[in-house]
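Hello,

I think I submitted the flavin-adenine dinucleotide job twice by accident. Can you confirm which output corresponds to this input? Input:
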Amino acid sequence: MLVRLLYASHSTATEAEFAAIVRQSRARNAELGVTGLLCHSEGVFVQVLEGGRAAVNRLYNQIVSDPRHKDVTLLAYTEISERRFAGWSMGQVSLQRLNPALLLKYSEVAKLDPYAMSGAAVSALFEELVSEGVIVCS
Ligand code: FAD
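Support: Only one job matched these inputs. Its output is below.
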């Protein structure tokens, strides 16, 4: 039973804390069988998590209570038959390589603001990021 969960939050993390989150997530997600992507841009996190329902739900509850971010907002939660981000224990979106036209395709302005986008639009944007090759690290 697989699910995909997408949320946004406001980051209070320093660059060093962010690096620690990515390191910790890669190791732990691999153990949990969780895959996904994390985007960190101008004080905003967007993360997609895929995996078994129990593992994803438990992890999301831990993430929500993490003091390194706030205003955690669930954007989408879907039962899935297959993963779309299977190649990444926690891939990072490289915003330097992000085409502004792609952001404009899904949002009002060429700036990532997941709080002003529907969950479906953020999901579609993430899928295009994968096909455009702007995901770094596995
Ligand atoms: P512990 O490491 O014992 O943490 C205990 C408590 O302290 C938790 O509430 C934890 O959130 C908090 N905490 C841990 N380290 C710090 C720190 N350096 N500074 C302040 N508080 C701290 N974890 C994953 O395993 N996979 C992910 O994909 C993932 N994504 C994340 C995305 C974001 C945006 C953030 C902010 C965190 C993410 N984390 C992720 C980390 C997650 O929130 C937990 O820290 C982690 O799951 C371990 O939690 P724990 O309760 O088992 O352990």
